[in-house]
Amino acid sequence: MSIGYSIKEGFAGFGRTKLASATSTFSLFIAVLLAGFLTRGGYALYTLAVDLTDEVQMEIFLAPISEERTQDFGDYLDEQPWVESIEFTSKEAASARFEQEFGEGFGSEALADLDFLPASFTLILTPDIPIDEVQQQVERLQEFQEVDDIAFNAALYQQLRSRVDQSLWVGLSVASVILIASIWLVFNTIRLTIYAKRDTIKAMKLVGATNAFIRRPFVIEGVLQGWIGSIVAFGVLDALFRWGVPLAIPQMGVLAWPLGAWYYLAAGMLLLGTLIGLLGSTMASHRFIRLA
Fold first, then answer.
1. Which of 26, 67, 88, 97 has the fewest other C-beta atoms within 10 Å?
2. Does the global pTM surpass 0.70?
């Protein structure tokens, strides 16, 4: 009986403070939508950054050394924990690639005869390796007798990393502000609902109702706001990424869901909305019912 009463009163709270309930639900919707957008967009940005950093390669040009020393040095590089993969390009392969890219009209055949193109190792670095560590490895490898030169675009690598980090920090900061504002709005809505029912609350206390029993409908109201805001937010997010983003940026297409399925993000958004509504309503009901 008490649970049915609490649920009924939780729904009735929307009617008592229509404007405040609509405002807090809308704010909660915006907060959850932004969190979902940042999660899905951030996941896409992270995968893109990983792909781009995979393309930022380190190429080690070898000094004139024997095949045995080349093999030993390649094995040494392959064993390094910061090396994801390694590819060897012989002098002959480098000359052939030069001719293919520039053509014979450029005089590549004559240049290739000069035997000026060295053998090299192309390294793909492990994801998330700090730029400082990469530069340390470059400086260390330059001391090896097997190494003639090292080509690595540190500026591009660092720029990619910093842009990703900046985007994530800005997104998290904005999301945090909106989440706090949403909790406050739910808190304020429940406060207004309690004020509207202050006479009923006093009467309930006189007949022996406990504070926990009186608080329950207000907590349910906050949770309902969280559910409504979260469900609508996920629907908008799905439509945005399903139709809006491909229409605005056709080359991006439909972005992949985090963890490979839609229901993980849907569950996360619903949980976030529930927690926001629960936290705001619990704080307000604990504080103001004692004063009613």
1. 67
2. no
